[in-house]
Specification:
20% strand; globular; 4 helices; 36% helix; alpha+beta
Amino acid sequence: MSTQYVSVYTANGMLDAEMIRSFLESLGIPSLLSHESAGTVLGLTLGTLGEVQVMVPAEKFEEANTILDAMEQGKYNKEDVSETELPEDDQTNIEPD
């Protein structure tokens, strides 16, 4: 039995799509990317040829959609996490010039 995948997000270019795919997979939602190969060959990131569909299993669509809606509302911003919650190696002090 094969799994049916449905589009949950339309990205402008492969970089945006890869970030969304990685984000979903980090939360346990398998995903794959679908795009028109001509856009990749031509290096397009805008318009129909630059679009990349982030696809998830049909049974995970609602969960993925909820996560992406929360992301767009800023609920996963790094600023929302206090520095004490970050692992030691993620706490960097950058001195201004």
